[in-house]
Structures are given as structure tokens and as C-alpha cells.
Amino acid sequence: MIEIGERLLLVGKDREYFVTAGEGQFSTDRGMIDLLALVGMNPGDEIRTHLDVPFTVLRPRPTDFFVHARRSGAPMLPKDIGMVIAYTGMNRDDRVLDAGTGSGVAAIYFGKIAREVKTYEVRPEFARLAERNIREARLDNVEVIAADMLDATGEFDVVHLDLGLSREHVEHAYSILSPGGYLACYTPFLEHTFTALDAATPLFRDVHCYECMERELMRSARGTRPSTRVAHSGYITIARK
């Protein structure tokens, strides 16, 4: 049952909206939606605007937060987050350290999989935004810490870095990883990728670097072809302790 204050996705024929159940009216070009009427509904139920336009009520998934959540910058793309999850084998037993939180999108994906996520963000205003997004994702196993990951202590099964990378970051990640644990570094430029590779190779027993090129298939009346959007987003360096 949907509770007051809960984030929801309303999906119509050619529109979708990210709303919060509770007091007030949500105005759309298809009519007004009574947000209080959402409280007590269940996912899959239908709500209608005052113009009788129907919308299906859904609980959002991490993909919806990628699209709709408030942003402090450009988040990692789902394809790159997926590579981190796949190549580290992230699972429900893992303790994950995520650094360079930004809007918290990657932390939301990780929080739906791992047992515990601690995400570090040095910019307090970004940390506050991420904390709000993570709270709206209803994740109580993700903790936002407004600090440098170089201050992090403890032991983790996966360390993920998406920040202005230095050798010190890689070395500290090694020191807090459990035996057999993984480091994953997301770097949009080759210069930071070389920093990750050069710092990780002497320390870790298994180091690889990947680039995932993605092209969406587009269909139209004229025919079918790959999207012309830029396929590159970043490099993922995976290292195992």
C-alpha cells in the first residue's frame, strides 16, 4: 500500500511523471492529479486526472531515478553501472564503498543489490541532494557521508570510485578492501584511466580495463538503423585484491 510522502511514477499513454504522494494537486497538460488520492493505492492501480485521462501508478526502480531524480551533474550511465555490478559480482552479502556520490544514482543501484553501501561525497551540497534522492528511493542500507573517501575506515568487498582520481585513492581502496574484493574505477578520460591502471597494477593481482560502447536501435517509417548519439561515456578499470 502506498504511503504518504512516497515517490511514485505515473505512466500514461505518452507521458510519465515522477510525483510524491500527499497533499496537493499535480498539474499536467492532461489535467490535474490529486496527489492525496494516491495514498492507500497499490502499484498497478489507475488514477485519473480531472479530465478523465488515466495514469498507471508504479513504484520507481533505479532506472526511474536515473531519468527523473534531481541531479548535481551527469550521473554514470546504466550501462557503466551495470559493468561495475557484473565485473565485481556485487551481491546481497557485500559491503560496498562508493565514492564520488554526485546525485546518488549509482548508490541507489548498488543499494538495491548489496547488503550495505557507504557513499562518500566531499561536496556537502551534493551530499545533501544525494541523501534526499536515496531517502526517496526508500533505501535504509545506504549511508551518505560528506567526506573524502581517503578518510574511510573499515573493510569492504567492493570499492567504486567515480571522482577526480589520484594514486592515493587507489592505494587507500586497496587498504580497505577485503581479500578477494574488487576495486572499480570509472574514468571518463584516458589520463585518469592511466592513473588507475598504473596505481592498481603493482598492488592488485588481476587488473583489466573496459570500454562499453552502446548504440540504441532506432526504428522509423524510413527504416531501422543505430542511433547516431555518442556511444562513449567512460572507461571502467576493474582490479581484484
Describe the structure.
With 241 residues, this protein is an alpha/beta fold. The protein has two domains: 7-58, Vcp-like ATPase, Chain A, domain 2, CATH 3.10.330; 64-240, Rossmann fold (3-Layer(aba) Sandwich), CATH 3.40.50.150. It contains six helices and 15 strands. The protein has a seven-stranded mixed sheet with strand order 9-8-7-10-11-15-12, with helices on both faces. It has a four-stranded antiparallel sheet with strand order 2-1-6-5, with no helix packed on it. The chain has a two-stranded antiparallel sheet with strand order 3-4. Strand 10, helix 5 (167-176) and strand 11 (177-187) form a beta-alpha-beta unit. The longest helix has 13 residues, at 124-136.
Alpha-carbon Rg, integer: 20 Å
How many strand segments? 15
Task: Name the CATH homologous superfamily of the largest domain.
Answer: Vaccinia Virus protein VP39
Low-confidence sequence ranges: none
How much of the polypeptide forms β-strand, as a percent range? 25-35%
In CATH, the architecture of the largest domain is 3-Layer(aba) Sandwich
String of helices and strands? EEEEEEHHEHEHEEHEHEEEE
Task: Report the CATH C-level class of the largest domain.
Answer: Alpha Beta
CATH topology of the largest domain: Rossmann fold
Quick structural gist:
The protein has helices at 62-68, 78-88, 105-111, 124-136, 167-176, 190-200; strands at 7-11, 16-20, 25-28, 31-34, 46-48, 54-58, 95-99, 116-120, 142-145, 156-161, 177-187, 206-211, 217-219, 224-226, 235-240. The protein is of the alpha/beta class and 241 residues long.
